[in-house]
Design a protein that fits this description.
12 strands, alpha/beta, five-stranded parallel sheet, 335 residues, 14 helices, seven-stranded parallel sheet, elongated, 13% strand, single chain
Length: 335
């Protein structure tokens, strides 16, 4: 397997390509790593990719477009080490028969795990009580409360890969799960997990916890706004680990200012949020800097799995288990 890795040398590449993974890539065949420490550019790839059969990318790598494809006549496979491939694959990739695999499955599982962590942290008010004890020395007071995930009604907005992992992870908590999606839910999952397909208004008005997992494209931008936020019941929890622009952030801030419900937000319309963003000052909001997943320790594992799969495909004709088809990419987030 001849591969070209379009990631600049430095910390980020080192989290994916540990010494063990560098050895793995080289043992699989000829592996050429972009040698610069600044961002890899399209012209860098064109000048170096040569007869590589595999193009390996991560955050910030150049999109695989017609210019790179023309410069790489032997290219058969694009390995994207991160989640969505939309910013990294031009339509010509599939049109010319180049196959694509990515870390989307692993990323999704990690985001689902992060979502469960956010739910538990918010319900038990872990950040507040920890900071109060450390900074003020305040022990548990009469009236201090925390809440359980056990037995809650959870509303899941969109049933993609992350949501599928999430409903599996929620099973030990004996939750009731309502799901909104534009397509019918898989019958197997409905039976296995007791899923109830519901409309957005039903979910926002009836659920104890609402968690958003919708990919961002034109049709989903601002799909959640004032009308739905006004339906959230007092004491409920709203979690967003998808994309900030899925919702109207101004409307969310207005609703949260009432103190009627809590929120955990991992994503925002602008990242980082503007200095004057109201969310910074709301006590009923936990803010995270887009860290739901994947955790850094998973990056080397993802790389190992994808490089191994690529070598099996190129050298031994083995099937691809983590393939992203053109149809699958069409429903992935744009960024």
């Amino acid at each position: 397997m001849r591969s070209y890795i379009a990631l600049p040398d430095g910390y980020v590449r080192g989290t994916f390509f540990t010494p063990e993974n560098i050895k793995l890539a080289k043992d699989a065949g000829r592996a050429v790593f972009f040698g610069g420490t600044s961002k890899c550019r399209t012209e860098d790839v064109i000048g170096e990719i040569g007869d590589s059969e595999v193009y390996v990318t991560g955050w910030g790598s150049p999109k695989l477009d017609a210019a790179i494809i023309d410069a790489a006549p032997c290219l058969k496979l694009h390995v994207h080490l991160c989640g969505t491939v939309v910013p990294y694959d031009a339509p010509e990739v599939w049109d010319r028969g180049i196959r694509v695999i990515s870390g989307n499955y692993f990323f999704a599982e990690s985001v689902a795990e992060g979502t469960v962590g956010y739910m538990l942290s918010a319900l038990r008010d872990i950040p507040f009580y920890s900071e109060r004890l450390k900074k003020e020395g305040v022990w548990k007071n009469t009236g201090d409360m925390s809440f359980s995930l056990l037995g809650k009604t959870v509303g899941v907005i969109s049933y993609g890969t992350i949501a599928r992992h999430l409903v599996r992870m929620l099973q030990p908590f004996r939750v009731k799960i309502k799901v909104y999606d534009i397509k019918p839910l898989p019958e197997e999952d409905v039976i296995k997990y007791g899923l109830l397909q519901a409309g957005l208004a039903d979910i926002f008005s009836s659920c104890d916890i609402i968690t958003v997992h919708t990919p961002l494209f034109d049709a989903t931008r601002h799909m959640i706004g004032k009308e739905l936020f006004d339906l959230i019941r007092p004491g409920a929890l709203f979690v967003n680990t998808s994309r900030g622009e899925i919702l109207d952030q101004d409307a969310l801030e207005d609703a949260l200012e009432s103190g009627r419900f809590k929120a955990v937000l991992d994503v925002y319309r602008k990242e980082p949020p503007e200095p004057d963003c109201r969310l910074y000052h709301l006590p009923n909001v936990i803010m995270m800097p887009h860290m739901a997943g994947p955790t850094v320790d998973l990056r080397s594992y993802i790389t190992h799995e994808l490089i191994t799969e690529a070598a099996g495909f190129i050298d031994r004709g083995e099937p691809l288990s983590r393939e992203i088809t053109k149809e699958r990419a069409a429903v992935m987030s744009r960024h």
